[in-house]
Design goal:
There is one protein chain. The chain has two domains: 91 residues; 107 residues, no CATH class. β1 and β2 form a beta hairpin. The chain has 267 residues and is mostly helical. It is built from seven helices and two strands, in the order ββααααααα. α2 runs antiparallel to α7. The longest helix has 55 residues. The N and C termini lie far apart (76 Å).
Length: 267
């Protein structure tokens, strides 16, 4: 039970005497029988309790407080990202066409054909160079626009719980170090060096574990992604080359699978 006290001052032969008495609900401070005006303030929850009461929300709900202008920027960024991906397909078509022309030109040289369509081959290379430059510029502009707008509208949004936990652990460790450095004499006077060091190390160990866990998930995701990419490339080369070889004996007008088709599918 919390005890409350009141002070009463009396003067005896020129000596000021102060009496400290415990207060109860019926104790009066003045001679007018007025009750004490002691105010009990309700205890508030600590910041840690408030943090624990916060419930996670979905990714979509993170943007429910965005303004109309921010929503427009997000839509524009999404459109720029989709356009950048669509433009890349045009580059693949140009590259596939150039591959077919290079193979045809090489076969003519190998077979010592008297008439070599060199002008057509050079025109194909020129179209590829110009088209590749234009598409590269568009991809750069659209990609930069989408990334800039996404970062601009969501720069204050933290979507990773592990990142938040990591920052909190490092924050606690830095607060301990700051407190110890600011009151070094007090810590040394009470021989609290080991205790403060252990507290600092415990928070660093927690941050280390969280960082390792986050890195593991990132590496696992990247590994699975590249596994499917290389598996798709290997399957395409293994099966695609067989289709191209099977169609080489057919007339050129009846050839469905060419080297350019395989390159376009792989890319």
């Amino acid at each position: 039970m919390e005890m409350r006290y009141a002070k009463e001052a009396t003067e005896n032969n020129g000596i000021l005497m102060i009496h400290i008495k415990p207060l109860d609900e019926n104790y009066n401070l003045t001679t007018n029988n007025k009750k004490s005006s002691v105010v009990d303030y309700p205890q508030t929850d600590s910041s840690a309790d408030l943090v624990n009461d916060i419930h996670p929300v979905s990714f979509i709900k993170l943007f429910r407080f965005t303004s109309s202008s921010e929503k427009c920027l997000l839509i524009l960024a999404l459109a720029a990202a989709i356009s950048g991906g669509a433009v890349t397909v045009g580059n693949m078509l140009l590259f596939a066409n150039m591959t077919d022309n290079m193979i045809n030109f090489g076969s003519q040289v190998t077979n010592n054909v008297s008439v070599i369509e060199s002008d057509e081959f050079l025109d194909t290379l020129q179209r590829f160079a110009i088209g590749n430059a234009i598409i590269g510029g568009l991809v750069f502009i659209l990609g930069y626009t989408s990334n800039f707008l996404f970062n601009y509208t969501a720069q204050k949004q933290l979507t990773s719980n592990l990142s938040i936990m990591e920052l909190e652990a490092y924050g606690k460790a830095s607060s301990i170090a700051e407190e110890v450095l600011s009151s070094m004499r007090t810590v040394v006077a009470f021989s609290g060096q080991d205790k403060e060091v252990n507290g600092y190390e415990s928070n660093l160990v927690l941050a280390k574990k969280i960082t390792i866990k986050k890195g593991f998930y990132i590496a696992l995701t990247s590994g699975v992604n590249w596994f499917f990419i290389y598996s798709s490339l290997g399957l395409s080369f293994w099966y695609g080359i067989g289709l191209v070889l099977d169609g080489m004996d057919k007339p050129e007008s009846n050839q469905v699978y060419t080297a350019g088709t395989m390159i376009m599918v792989i890319c």
